[in-house]
Design a protein that fits this description.
By secondary structure, this protein is an all-alpha fold. The protein contains 8 helices and no strands. It folds into 2 domains: about 120 residues; about 100 residues, no CATH class.
Length: about 250
């Protein structure tokens, strides 16, 4: 096979293959990073609305293209040979390509909606989705405290201090939430650094192979049972704690 034919085949494969976000990417980097369970559900609503609206528009475009193709085929059949007929053939080719594009877009949408709908089904077992806006409103305090705590902790881990932007956001909250936010940030930062130190010792071979990578080390009695992000920020997708909302 010649190089040009091979490249043509490759481009055909590229054009007909929808490249959607993977379920892993959607769950971990689109939904889970929303910190609280309710914000995760809110994100599911936003993602599904966007894709479903896109799907509806694409369905209409596909139906329209199908009818336009039929009209063009009828006109081409009746038209005598000449430039006008050739222009109609070009328009027909454009519509056929547009139709194929719509079909690929629908496959793309469906592939991304599937994991989102599965997660929303799980959420529906614990939360009254008909009243989601009211639940979101009551979750706002918890969300912002946890979000700003996490951001402040990451600032402390990377630069040693809370960044100006995050500190400005924190002091915009009531005093009680400020204290809670900063205390959680300090606690999370400390635990994360200890966990990283244990992982570093393990990687460099300074620790026993059976050492718990998340324990505080030989000079500490207390052990960290889980990665702090799970315990401090309730980042387990639809964990048992959401049942308290029932």
């Amino acid at each position: 096979m010649s190089s040009s034919k091979k490249r043509k085949q490759l481009l055909e494969i590229v054009m007909k293959t929808p490249i959607a976000m993977s379920p892993f990417q959607i769950e971990n980097f689109v939904v889970r990073n929303q910190i609280t369970n309710i914000r995760q559900i809110r994100q599911l609503f936003l993602e599904l609305k966007t894709r479903n609206e896109s799907k509806r528009t694409t369905v209409f475009n596909r139906r329209k293209a199908e009818q336009e193709i039929k009209i063009l085929e009828e006109r081409i059949e009746k038209k005598p040979d000449g430039p006008k007929k050739e222009l109609l053939k070009i328009k027909l080719e454009e519509k056929i390509i547009s139709l194929k594009g719509a079909e690929h877009a629908l496959v793309h949408c469906d592939k991304e909606m599937e994991p989102l709908l599965k997660m929303l089904e799980v959420a529906s077992e614990f939360v009254d989705l008909d009243n989601i806006q009211e639940i979101i409103d009551t979750d706002e305090r918890d969300y912002w405290v946890k979000r700003l705590s996490k951001q402040a902790a990451l600032d402390m881990l990377t630069t040693g201090v809370v960044g100006t932007g995050n500190m400005d956001a924190i002091i915009s909250m009531p005093e009680e939430e400020q204290i809670q936010c900063l205390a959680a940030a300090v606690d999370y930062n400390t635990k994360l650094k200890l966990g990283m130190q244990n992982i570093e010792r393990k990687v460099l071979g300074d620790a026993n192979p059976n050492t718990d990578l998340l324990s505080e080390g030989p000079d500490k009695d207390e052990e960290i049972k889980e990665l702090p992000i799970k315990t401090e920020f309730d980042n387990l997708l639809f964990s048992d704690s959401i049942k308290k909302l029932k």
